[in-house]
Design goal:
The chain is of the alpha/beta class. The chain has 2 domains: 18-255, Type I PLP-dependent aspartate aminotransferase-like (Major domain) (Aspartate Aminotransferase, domain 2); 256-349, Aspartate Aminotransferase, domain 1. It has helices at residues 18-27, 39-52, 64-75, 89-92, 97-102, 119-127, 154-166, 178-185, 227-233, 242-252, 256-277, 297-305, 329-349, and strands spanning 57-61, 80-85, 106-110, 136-143, 170-175, 200-203, 214-218, 281-282, 290-294, 311-314, 318-322. The structure holds pyridoxal-5'-phosphate.
Length: 350
């Protein structure tokens, strides 16, 4: 049995980046105040305000599911609903955490090409809500980078926000891969967040090279009242918060977060071009650190037999290969070489 290779299964199979690991060790020298009342957490919150060039409210929770669920609970009453894309992590991969934390809010998935919200679809979904008898639409949630690896441009986000505001709705951004979007767009973080109308951002660090810790950033401070209580009750007030804050600071210092994201994006780009030369069918534009391929079942099995782990993302035959800050040339050539071999075996078997 070949050892399983995790390099392309997800960007959270990667380790901590060296800067984060060093910061963790450094934070381990001596005692510090608990529950976020320490220097490093304070510096992190200031650093995030600097980065977004606005006086926002910043909170740190353990993971992305909690960040999304707590943020949406903050915006919604139990009788509200959240419009999202049908691929959205909040709807497919969070075990109902949003429904649970909101105490009854409903997620309404909508279609849209390339993983992006399509306002015509949203409009149609809204038209299907019967006043008083359906949940009251309250939030549009978009994912940046999308679950299909594509990236919303600032004007696309602004258009969604204008649509939302007109209907008295808030805009939430699941930014588990926010760094990869900024690396792709090369814009200031404010351009695709508060300036484009986003009220709250869940800013992911884990897939960028941390062990844990996601930020919930409220640009609209009217939305953040008592969020600290909500997080505590939900089990997300970290007592040794400095150990999440220190590696986060290390990411933001010297733009390590962007360096990591660029490396991951470039790896996906190279991988995609290698796969194309093996005649692979790539189904979404490669704009970040993911490559989506259409593979037939026997071919996917051949790759798995060679030890590679990767997920089927969309039924029946679309698979995802994910790159991380740590993806190496050697990993890529090993995969491409197995891909080439599996291809010739698969066609020989036909
Ligand atoms: C990874 C991911 C999250 C966070 O997942 P956790 O496992 O809860 O940290 C949220 N949204 C998207 C789009 C993701 O890919």
């Amino acid at each position: 049995m070949t050892a399983r290779r995790q390099e392309f299964a997800s960007d959270n199979t990667a380790g901590l980046c060296l800067e984060a690991a060093a910061a963790l060790a450094e934070a381990n020298a001596g005692a510090a105040a608990s529950y976020g009342d320490d220097d490093r957490t304070r510096r992190l919150c200031d650093r995030v305000r600097e980065l977004f060039e606005i006086d926002c409210d910043v909170f740190l929770v353990f993971n992305g599911t909690a960040a999304n669920a707590l943020a949406l609970a903050q915006l919604c009453q139990p009788f509200h609903s959240v419009i999202c894309h049908e691929y959205a992590h909040i709807d497919n991969d969070e075990c109902g955490a949003c429904e649970f934390y909101t105490g009854g809010s409903k997620l309404i998935p909508t279609g849209g090409a390339k993983g992006k919200i399509d306002l015509r679809e949203v409009e149609a979904a809204l038209a299907r809500q019967h006043e008083l008898h359906s949940h009251k639409p309250r939030v549009i949630s978009l994912t940046q980078v999308t679950e299909a690896g594509t990236v919303y441009a600032a004007d696309e986000i602004r258009e969604i926000s204008v649509f939302a505001k007109k209907r008295g709705m808030f805009l939430h951004m699941d930014g588990a891969r926010f760094a990869n979007a900024i690396a792709k767009l090369r814009c200031a973080p404010k351009e695709i967040t508060w300036r484009a109308g986003v009220e709250v951002l869940c800013f992911g660090g884990t897939k960028n090279g941390l062990a844990a810790g996601e930020l919930v950033v409220f640009f609209n401070k009217e939305c953040s009242a008592d969020f600290d209580y909500r997080a505590k009750q939900g089990g997300h007030l970290v007592s040794k918060m400095r150990f999440l804050a220190a590696p986060w600071l290390a990411l933001l210092d010297n733009d390590v977060w962007l360096k990591n994201a660029r490396q991951a994006n470039e790896a996906a780009f190279k991988l995609a071009s290698g796969l194309r030369s093996c005649d692979a069918e790539i189904v979404f534009p490669v704009e970040s650190n993911a490559v989506f391929l259409r593979l037939d079942l026997t071919f996917a099995q051949k790759l798995r037999e060679r030890g590679w782990d990767f997920y089927k993302f969309i039924e029946p035959n679309i698979y995802r290969l994910m790159c991380a800050w740590s993806t190496s040339e050697a990993d890529m050539s090993a995969l491409l070489s197995d891909f080439g071999e599996a291809r010739s075996c698969a066609s020989a078997a036909r």
